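User: Before I run my own analysis I want an independent prediction to cross-check against. Here's the chain; please return only the structure tokens and, at the end, one sentence I can use as a sanity check.
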Amino acid sequence: MRKLISTGSPFEKTAGYSRAVVQGDWCFVSGTTGYDYATMTMPDGVEAQTRNCLATISKALADGGFDMADVVRAHYYITDQAFVDLVFPILGETFGDIRPAATMIVCQLNKPEMKIEIEVTALRRSA
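Assistant: Structure tokens:
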């Protein structure tokens, strides 16, 4: 059975996607940028954006019955190579013990204010 997870972001309806899709024991979380969805604002710093990304992802996973420890794959997209050393410690706070397979890519994102985008895949751990 498929379950669609939404943050209520206007982007989801406009672009036709879900924040996350749960299919069986899998949860696929869409690329998530640093917006604060309560205020629809984007912080200036990559550190705050990273923390917002992780909070949004954590909530989407929880809404689907998962938690961060279920994450098996992570993709990180940053807009400047200089951000690597700024975001690694933040990512380590969340994923240091989980240690999913991960890739970080330096690229351009959809809007100039976006400095990081994170997407994850989770697999429900067996009891």
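Sanity check: The beta strands are 2-5, 20-23, 26-33, 71-78, 101-106, 116-123.
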